[in-house]
Amino acid sequence: GLLTMALAGFAKDFIAGAVLNDVGPEIAASGGARILEYIGKDVRFNSLEDAVVAQKAASTAYPDLSEEDWMQQTANNFKFDAEAGNYKLNYDLNIAKALAEQLNTSEPVDLWPFFAKLNDIPTLAIRGGLSDVLSAEVFERMKAENPTMETLVLENRGHVPLLNEPEVLEKMDQFIARI
Description:
The chain is an alpha/beta fold.
């Protein structure tokens, strides 16, 4: 979402439509601090089951996930490192550097002008109702500043919605079909 807003500011012709998943031009301090505690760290587990236990203990974002859902979510987030013989996070750990620069400064980049560049691009913004990253106040301001933006709030999700929830799939299918 942050990259999409930045791209809209610099090269919007490359964006046919945007889905912002529980992110906006401002990141709530509590959620940002929580993310900085774990993002970019090379966390490893001997099994996916061990990773599931750790994920469940660390997250309040998914209070209604079944054991099967937790296993699937964890399998999406971790990959087997054959060389090390364990499971590691499945994303570029360097992403933490850019986020830390934005969150750890007394003068973060004002992303509202970048968000404004999405005004003439079909945009769907999704917010987890339990989110500590995208506050309800910022979400309301986003809707006010971009009245054509489609929105969806998932009441029983925190940061980030998984995008496999039935109501999300239906909304995204309809949104993408119109682009």
